[in-house]
Amino acid sequence: MADNMYEKLETASAKTREAMADRQHLSPPPTHARQNRMRIATRETSCWYILWGFVLALCGLSILVDRPLLFVFLREPDFKDQCTQPEPHFPAKNEDLDKLVDIIEGDAFRNASVDRLSRAVQIKTESFDDMGEVGRDPRWEVFFKFHGFLALTFPLIHEKLQVEKVNTHGLLYTWKGSDDSLKPTLLMAHQDTVPVPPETIGSWTHPPCGAYDGKYVWGRGAADCKNTLIALLETLQLLLEANFQPKRTIILSFGFDEEVSGRRGASALSAFLQERYGKDGVAVIVDEGAGFEETWGTLFAKPGTAEKGYVDVKITVRMPGGHSSIPSDHTSIGVLSELITKIESEQYPTRLVEENPYYSQLQCGAGYSDNFPKKLKKLLADNAFKKPSFFLTCRNKPDRLALEAAKQGPAIKYLMQTSQAVDVISGGIKTNALPERATVTVNHRINIGETTKIVTDRLTSIGDEIAKKYNLTLHAFDDSQEEPNSIHLSSTVNKLEVAPITPADGSTNSPFTTLAGTVRAVYGKNVIVTPGIMTGNTDTRFYWNLTRHIFRFAPGYDADDEVGLGKIHTVDERVSVLNHVHTVRWFVTFVRNMDEARFDTDGGSGKSDDLGVGSD
């Protein structure tokens, strides 16, 4: 009986054993009972060791395969499902309209197109940062000559379509459709160009005056973006000649000051259009933007569905002047230099949120590119599985996907990072006078998922540190006036938050699907269409209220041309004529496809489509 009691004691909990022993006044258990108890304890300890060993092994495996712990045994997602490619989208058969493809590809059209584009480039339409108001600054008057050229070059358009001028130089062409319930297609370009510095003309391979060398047209505006403007007018001229009768209204909108932020041109045009068609009154907008990119062994078309934000910050340091022979320890220029060094010593973080179109391109690359980097694919898969509530890794990690993608170069890095560039600086007026005022302007392009506040907060913090060090007063973004012995921070009127993201799901009936299907119809099914992102800004910044479906896209492609956007705003700007011809073909196909498409957003704009009132 005692042995039986000891056995009960051994299988009971510690507290129960103590209580039972007290009640029974038991003596210590015999040797064999103590041995049983030790064996049980050993088995329990072994189980814990095995469990912890298993966890450690999983952690080791996680580190070995470079994958978060919970995702070690999960299969990679099907990235093709996350980058649906619509079938090539061809317009309905029409004998007269179908002949346009052969006409566009023919020598006669090519030669005529070269002449039109060359003459357009020859007419200088430069815009400058210090331009005054329209009607007061004579430099705007160059656009009158350009308008005359367009009227003579495209007589059928100016005869058949509604042509309106907005704020004197903004051009609006409207081809009224037969069905008012269908929202218009809006196609855009800008007339102005950046100047050609005279001292750089000798560095050009061919003079920047519309020269044609058998492959390229050279000059300012050849690629940004008189090529698009001429291609759009050629598109409508061809459709008019083929007796096309649109159901959906077609609008061309040409601003004249895009290169200086569009506040007189695009701003006035967008307000005019919103008054006519109402908020969300347009089906789709296509403006200048990203084009094609060959990477990872795959050709991607990258219509821009987002634009980074923008803010210029002007920093002014005011300090006492005096004679240079008796200088202070630190002048305004010296203090400003220290502030600039502090700003440049640290970059903004590299982050890739899922809303960023480049995230979509990574998914498309992982799904369709045989040469897509394995490490990027692994990190992308981990990100697809990740949920904040249960995400677990054996190490604390930053945004490894963004950092790995950024290794491809600055052009990729700044798709995922707020940029900063010290662009303009001034200070001092004489070598023997201490500078009382020094200023610098720092340009920033805001990353998707962030706001301009990330810039103003950081610069305020840096400015406060420097101000305290030199006993200066800080005025940071408080709309105050400059004052002596101070650091003054302010943002310019061009401040702009990140653009709304355009819907870009290729599996739905949407303008993106129509655009992507048109790309694949013109260039073939080997082209993968993915949303793109613009690091710069376009005139579309003023058109956000007209539609959610805004695409910044250069639809021309020449497989033998590697220039891309690399030569705009600089020496040797040029465009391949084959690129230009393909641009016309793409717009002709897109206009026809949009005319046949029907979207849930159609059904009238809520405004009267009255074209009887113009604006000049």
Automatic annotation (TrEMBL):
Signal peptide: none
Record keyword Transcription present: no
Membrane topology: Single-pass membrane protein
Pfam hit, one: Peptidase_M20
Binding site for Zn(2+) 1: D224, E259, H569
Positions of the UniProt region annotated as Disordered: 17-36
Any single GO CC term annotated in Swiss-Prot or TrEMBL for this entry: membrane
Major subcellular location class: membrane
InterPro entries named in the record: ArgE/DapE_CS, Bact_exopeptidase_dim_dom, Pept_M20_carboxypep, Pept_M20A, Peptidase_M20, Peptidase_M20_dimer
Coiled-coil blocks: none
Membrane-traversing stretches: 47-65
Residue numbers annotated as active site: D192, E258 (proton acceptor)
BP-aspect Gene Ontology terms: proteolysis involved in protein catabolic process
Classification via Gene3D superfamilies: 1.10.150.900, 3.30.70.360, Zn peptidases
Domain Peptidase M20 dimerisation: 305-470
The keyword Zinc-finger is assigned to this record: no
Cofactors named for this entry: Zn(2+)
MF terms (GO), sorted A to Z: metal ion binding; metallocarboxypeptidase activity
Similarity comment: family membership: Belongs to the peptidase M20A family.
Protein name per its UniProtKB record: Carboxypeptidase
Species this chain originates from: Podospora anserina (strain S / ATCC MYA-4624 / DSM 980 / FGSC 10383) (Pleurage anserina)
